[in-house]
Amino acid sequence: MSAVSLVVSDVDGTLVTPEKTLTDASVRAAHRLHERGIGFTVVSSRPPFGLRMLIEPLALGLPIGAFNGGAMAKPTLELIEQRLVPEPAARRSIEVIEQFAADVWVFTAELWLARNAAGDYVPRERRTLQAEPTVVTDFTPYLTRAAKIVGSSRDFGKLAACEEAMRAALGAQASVARSQAYYLDVTPPSVDKGTFVMALSQRLGIPPAAIAVLGDGENDIAMFGKAGLSIAMGNASEDVRRQATYVTKSNAEDGFAEAIEQYVLG
After folding, report:
1. Hey, which of 89, 244, 250, 258 would disulfide with 173, CB 3.0 to 4.6 Å?
2. C-beta neighbour count of 2 within 10 angstroms
3. Pairing outcome for strands 183-187 and 148-152
4. First to last CA, the chain
């Protein structure tokens, strides 16, 4: 394995705690990377504005990834490039989510749109993004600029069935993955966290073999296969852990900081 020149980390379930906070140890680990001349950035299913609170404490200076790799933005949140969910796929995805009685959210680069401000996971998403949803009765006017469609449900089994139905309904029209057990994400086709890693590799002139990635979710597996070093969180599923080079502690136990010290800096 080449010496690591760049670290790319998932956010929720990886970099932040279950309470969506950065620990002092994680912040120190990020700064240790900077001190050693190792690049550091994040890629997330969140919209760009949902990453704003990480920029200053982590001293992020490289492009960041949003919408599971569907968008790349500067640390100022100015978009560098963005792909959108094709409008027919956006419409169909909403229909499928509704068939499984899950809440529907639509995200653009600037907005989080919801029909129900009292939905089960709205308080969690509000705390995560530090933003309020825009409540609408009709998503139609926004579907030409939809960057992510989300189905959220407390019935994880039903959401898993929705995921299968969504893949069958959309095929190659969009990317489909669960970012959490309770969130099903529909994002632009042919882009994922792996394509973000490769785009960043090309932009920065850093070979994939010199990149380390960290993640916990199904949507992180795409970047595990693109990097020279992949680290799964202890809270990840068995399938995710099996596909990583190493497994660290959970995000409730400062697993990110431990992984940086042991597998990147150590």
Report:
1. 89
2. 12
3. antiparallel
4. 14
Q: What is the pLDDT of residues 29-48, one digit of tens each?
A: 999 999 999 999 999 999 99
Instruction: Give per-residue pLDDT as tens, 187-222.
Output: 999 999 999 999 999 999 999 999 999 999 999 999
C-alpha closest to that of 49 among 71, 21, 20, 81: 71
3-state secondary structure of 144: helix
The residue whose two tokens read 């995805």 is 93
Sheet holding 79-82, edge to edge: 64-66, 71-73, 79-82
CA–CA separation, 63 and 159 (whole Å):
32
Q: Go through the domains of the chain in sequence order and give each one's CATH number.
A: 6-82+191-265 (3.40.50.1000), 87-187 (3.30.1240.10)
